[in-house]
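Priority: medium. Attachment 1 of 2:
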């Protein structure tokens, strides 16, 4: 494949494209918000249904099914055309939301969350793939940066919105609100999005899809085993890991023989694809995986209230917006994405190295500046892996490649969340000293902490700061692994619409 022709955009009228993009972003906001919005409403739900031991599953069930179906949707879009695959995903998500809102017990709620995730995974993948059809590679960078902002906005707004809505209208409203939005988006896509028929007859690799789903599920369950089974290494978690490894090995053999594999293994022959997957996994670990721990860190070591800690996140989101918009504009002008991957991971590695040295009593302004630096870092490379693989993959495999990147980002986040949790737990578990007024340090809420006498509050803050230091060193190491992968990327230049790639770049990619 010496030359790769860039197909013309699916919709040529710029106004219609913008309206379509708005509908796509609404669907994406709905799917990503749903993971965040539940967090603040969980105590209310547990208060109504009981079963505190299943508390974690309301979030995990959604993430698990979301991750498991992502690669399948990317493939289905390549085979059947993106329009109807995306509309099916939105329908499944909307039905799942309605069932969640009408749930009568904890079990029905968890089952409905699985159904929601089956739709949500399709929305996430299809949106990036439809964007690839709507915009030419240079312009795509700019619009992909807007998609990233929607992802981050849902992360920032979700907890606040979830708390407010469950206070005013009851927790069921946070699910039921998706139903009218889902119908509006479906109507918009039905009338506005043209159907581009793929030029091949589909053969679906069901065995590959099932094996990949079981592998990703095993990874997420294994990393959550300290919560699920009480210890990170237990007979159950070892069994899950062994099962995951067996599924992964069988999956590779299945994909080699499949006529239409879920993730075409020849994509891995291209070093650009493999390196961008590594960057995506590390990016998910330090961006998505870190959010809850940064909130915990701020509330325990600085004594800030949840709302004041939330204000510091505005700095992080502000940095992210600046980084993302700047990178999107410059990539669409120059067509080069490698420098942004390097700059991004350098910023994040520096931010975590500085955070690991923060002790209780460090000025808030200094911590705020570090968070802003980390935000700029995440923003700079937010869209790099997706743009990069969409350019490196042959046109017939764009959906599968996009699905792989989105899945690897979520996978990186899920695994990192569990690793970070284990580091904090071991840091707090080794504390031998007893603090006046504190029976169990892990049960302290920010409100209880504020009520402690000053010496006790200071002692708790010091213990937490010491426990967080190895966590930040770990995330710094994760960022450095990503940085090495970024430095190894080829200096590819993105083509413009209707243009053929520069032969030397295309030949280099094909030779891999």
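Attachment 2 of 2:
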């Amino acid at each position: 494949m010496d030359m790769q022709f860039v197909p013309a955009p699916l919709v040529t009228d710029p106004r219609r494209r913008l309206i379509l993009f708005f509908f796509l972003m609404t669907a994406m906001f709905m799917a990503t918000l749903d993971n965040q919005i539940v967090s603040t409403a969980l105590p209310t739900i547990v208060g109504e249904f009981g079963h505190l031991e299943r508390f974690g599953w309301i979030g995990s069930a959604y993430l698990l099914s979301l991750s498991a179906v992502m690669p399948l949707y990317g493939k289905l879009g390549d085979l059947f055309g993106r329009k109807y695959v995306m509309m099916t995903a939105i329908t499944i998500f909307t039905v799942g939301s309605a069932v969640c809102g009408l749930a009568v017990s904890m079990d029905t709620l968890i089952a409905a969350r699985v159904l929601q995730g089956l739709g949500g995974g399709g929305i996430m993948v299809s949106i990036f793939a439809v964007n690839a059809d709507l915009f030419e590679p240079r312009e795509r960078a700019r619009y992909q940066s807007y998609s990233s902002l929607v992802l981050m906005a849902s992360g920032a707004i979700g907890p606040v919105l979830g708390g407010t809505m469950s206070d005013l209208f009851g927790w069921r409203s946070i699910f039921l609100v998706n139903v009218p939005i889902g119908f509006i988006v479906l109507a918009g896509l039905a009338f506005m999005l043209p159907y581009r028929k793929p030029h091949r007859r589909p053969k679906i690799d069901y065995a590959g899809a099932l094996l990949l789903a079981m592998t990703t599920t095993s990874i997420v369950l294994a990393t959550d085993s300290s919560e699920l089974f009480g210890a990170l290494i237990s007979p159950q978690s070892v069994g899950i890991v062994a099962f995951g490894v067996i599924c992964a090995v069988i999956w590779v053999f299945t994909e080699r023989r499949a006529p239409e594999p879920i993730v075409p293994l020849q994509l891995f022959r291209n070093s650009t694809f493999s390196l961008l997957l590594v960057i995506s996994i590390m990016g998910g670990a330090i961006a998505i995986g870190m959010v809850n721990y940064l909130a915990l860190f701020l509330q325990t070591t600085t004594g800030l209230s949840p709302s004041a800690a939330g204000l510091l996140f505005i700095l992080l989101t502000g940095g992210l917006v600046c980084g993302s918009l700047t990178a999107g504009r410059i990539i669409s002008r120059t067509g080069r994405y490698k420098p942004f991957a390097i700059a991004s991971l350098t910023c994040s590695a520096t931010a975590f190295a500085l955070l690991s040295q923060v002790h209780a009593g460090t000025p808030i302004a200094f911590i705020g500046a570090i968070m802003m630096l980390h935000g700029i870092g995440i923003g700079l490379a937010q869209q790099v892996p997706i743009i990069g693989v969409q350019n490196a993959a042959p046109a017939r495999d764009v959906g599968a490649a996009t699905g792989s990147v989105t899945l690897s980002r979520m996978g990186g986040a899920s695994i990192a969340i569990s690793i970070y949790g284990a580091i904090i737990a071991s840091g707090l578990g080794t504390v031998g000293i007893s603090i006046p007024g504190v029976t169990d340090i892990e049960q302290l809420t920010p409100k209880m902490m504020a009520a402690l006498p000053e010496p006790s509050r200071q002692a708790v803050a010091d213990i937490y700061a010491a426990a967080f230091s190895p966590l930040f060193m770990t995330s710094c190491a994760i960022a450095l692994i990503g940085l090495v992968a970024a430095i190894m990327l080829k200096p590819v230049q993105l083509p413009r619409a209707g243009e053929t790639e520069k032969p030397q770049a295309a030949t280099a990619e094909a030779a891999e």
